[in-house]
Amino acid sequence: MQPAEIEMEFGVPIPGRILPSDQWVKTGIKRLPEDGPLDWEAIFGRKAPIVLDLGCGNGRFTLGSALARPEVDHFAIDVLPMVIRYATRRGNQRGLSNVRFAVKDAETFARQYAGDGGVAEVHLYHPQPYHDARQAHRRLFTPRFLADVHRALQPDGLFVVQTDNPDYWEYMVRVVPHFFAFQEQAEPWPDSPEGRTRREIVARQRGLKIFRGIGRRRSDVEPAAALELARSLPEPKFRSRGPWCDLDRWESSERG
Question: What is the pTM of this model?
């Protein structure tokens, strides 16, 4: 049986069409080198702006962005091999030569592989808030992580963040402006009015509010100063309760 030309997920099309198999490409990187940073030109075979999707899940945002911007190269990672398999398959079937997927945690990737000042955009959608206080230390969104993202971005580079957790968002709006000129995006993203990610689609269908923000790399903060600043800022130690907790548990079970 031939695959459907268009895939659906929770009633929303996944970006792009499945092409005939002779037009498929390979978007997966089986193993990253032990040491970074990555050589983007070697990976993609050209020089182009680089967009990072940290914690990409099944790849919905990366697929849509890569289809809309063929002149831009996209590198997406997630810590779970299962979801990267889904994302890679979809990228392959859509013939997206400007996409690569790899298995890696976002903290290590930002610190070790992203490099210095060569990335145009970093996107982070719905980082796991870890409601259990015993796991709070695993939260990705820390001052040190922001310093690493700041270092990786080119001057005036773009940092996009999104969550449905109001406690996490309250922390984000406190710390992000130290590194980025930051503003809230109140309305849905114009390119994806029903949701840029699987998580956003489900959260909105459950009536949860989505918090979105756009930051531009502050040029008045040098990388060394950003690291020093990160040491002085509070860690994300909020305690989170609410309906989004049930969605987190559901997502964890869905992701394995």
Answer: 0.94
